[in-house]
Amino acid sequence: MQMQMLQSSVSLGLSASPVRVVKCSLVRAPSTTVNDPNSMAAAGPKWAQKTITLPPQRRGCHLITPKIVKEIDQELSDFNCGLAHLFLQHTSASLTINENYDSDVRDDTETFLNRIVPEGTSAPWKHTLEGPDDMPAHIKSSMFGCTLTVPITNGKLNMGTWQGIWLCEHRDYPTARKVVVTLNGI
Amino acid sequence: MQMQMLQSSVSLGLSASPVRVVKCSLVRAPSTTVNDPNSMAAAGPKWAQKTITLPPQRRGCHLITPKIVKEIDQELSDFNCGLAHLFLQHTSASLTINENYDSDVRDDTETFLNRIVPEGTSAPWKHTLEGPDDMPAHIKSSMFGCTLTVPITNGKLNMGTWQGIWLCEHRDYPTARKVVVTLNGI
Amino acid sequence: MQMQMLQSSVSLGLSASPVRVVKCSLVRAPSTTVNDPNSMAAAGPKWAQKTITLPPQRRGCHLITPKIVKEIDQELSDFNCGLAHLFLQHTSASLTINENYDSDVRDDTETFLNRIVPEGTSAPWKHTLEGPDDMPAHIKSSMFGCTLTVPITNGKLNMGTWQGIWLCEHRDYPTARKVVVTLNGI
Shortest Cα distance from B47 to chain C (angstroms)? Predict the structure, then answer.
């Protein structure tokens, strides 16, 4: 069946001017023309999943949207409406969404993380065998999280103008990091 | 096909009394009666996606469940079992799930965020061009995150009794905030 | 239709040796052989949702992967490729993914949370009626979050070697905690 793109204006609350709302109508799958595999295939729900390996990065916050998109661009373009899930398979790094423009934002975020999570001889950790940066890395990983879900609209990740995907590397010695990407939609 | 709602009691661990577990059986789609478009449409997987604009809010944590539900209630009612994904398209505000009852909880959360993230002339940030509240806002956005996924059950968001959706506005000067809502399920 | 498992090696950036990438090809549903309900049922998208009750846990971080997997193992095995969503229906506990091996990591994480979130008579909270541990619990819940999404691959949760699911109990007096688990995929 066809996906209808509707535009209507919806005002909520105090905003002075009407706000344009883009709406993807409720879409059901599959198509009723079940004898046409191409038609049904185009309309039915789709899944794609792959594991991407990001190269080692120095400790700090890194903008990785281009790397991610390059790896999934072909599959992404096949979706009209859906969700892209990213899952970092590590406990000493994290994923977050934040500013894609000024690299000072990434530097300042690293400054914050190091300020707030004790590290070194004065830190109160029991888990010290893997080095002074390891327990702080675990804490930072849970603070920012290791998973993200981004909407897909018209074959693209539908983030705000200034949003980008960051890999935050919390260990001193860089290692490759694996991300399982799962796309789902129609 | 039919979705079966089963109830069984499952005890796990040390709880003294049996605990009721509501279970939605594994449901496959689509229906085998493919010649009946209405039957298939009702049973098949569904997607809906829209961008909601929330009106400007003063700095602080705001309970927005009613606003969100009002915008998606019609589409939501069409789902028996699924997930609702909310994606805030901004890097200086955040979304979280927390108490929906006592507004002091929202005030205290704002107090905590301001206490933990340095702001002003003594703050160690390089990113200062957009004002003293901006870099702290980016940090708070990554701390709480900009995405939420809530289960849908029987046409409703399936949250706990005391849970609500919060928009946390981290900038001093209020601006409208866009949220992409994606519903998926059967 | 069949899901094709392809293996290809993809090098990204500075890694010295080729990295094996496991790729689940873009899969469309449903099957074109619509007259065979068994074939279609096996290939079509599937949903399963259940509410699990975790027994009361003492305050602190707890590895709950075995408990979760035991509850959903049967349904999980039915999925080739998908996502498992966990939603904790509480505002004074949290879910996170972190190390599954050394329990010191869980102890140190609890130490960190208590260090960073003020508690007791010197804490600046207005919300105090439910006890000195309550407002700190709400804050910790938003810091770590109450939802997780984990990829499903070949009938299993596809986490990294050292990753596990934690329930972080933030209240002093243990209570049972409900988690809505939603599985979706093919």
Answer: 13
